Amino acid sequence: MSAQPEEAPAPPAPAAAAQLLQELRADRRADTWVPAFERDWAKALEDSGRDETGFVDLNDVLGARR
What we know:
Blueprint: H1 14-26, H2 30-48, H3 58-62
Helix pairs in contact: 1-2
């Protein structure tokens, strides 16, 4: 039996992340939650080992930050 390396868990789909980020920005606690989400999202993408160069920037989907 050979050991197979486990794949890193994939982050949520970009559309789901964009929707969640939009909801967080509308919340009264946006100053706290939005930076934490963006930090964790970047870490999840980094940990997945995926090449995200072919994807659309989340800011392009949601527009400029408030």
